[in-house]
Amino acid sequence: MTSDAVPADPRSTREPFDPADVTWTPVSRRLVGARLTVTAIVLTPVLALLVLMAVFAGEAWLWVFPALVALLALWIVWLVPRQVNAMAYAERADDLLVRRGIMFRSLVVVPYGRMQYVDVNAGPLARRFGIASVQLHTASPATSASIDGLPPHEAARLRDRMASRGEARLAGL
């Protein structure tokens, strides 16, 4: 007969995704506004078109489609802040950790010595919200990572720091 031991520390069940020795830096909350704006840009015309179709057709059952789009929008409004809260990164001595996800969690560990180059991107909407993305490229596409929703000054600092750490680790080879 086996007994299932309950861990003394409830955080120990999150250990693969939340190591104890790591201080996480969250992404900017402005990412929520940017993602919700994209949702509004996409769903508003769809909702308007479906409402017009239901009004002009005069069929009551056609109102199901605008209702479904409205429910989808509400679900996204509920989900996006939770997703952004789950996003964070941590700098350690030899690598960078990037985590994301609520139900399907992901933790990417990018060793500084494997970095080939670092990109900083900010499209028009991201610039409007005052955020940028940092993309880390390695020799293996599986270990490449991106960090969305960083303030531009933090993205530039992280880019420079990652590039210098990558060069230092590469020089040691």
From TrEMBL:
Protein name: PH domain-containing protein
Keyword Kinase: no
Keywords of the record: Membrane, Transmembrane, Transmembrane helix
Species of the source: Cellulomonas humilata
Claim: Transmembrane is one of the keywords in the record: yes
TM segment ranges: 36-55, 61-80
YdbS-like PH domain span: 87-161
Matching InterPro entries: YdbS-like_PH
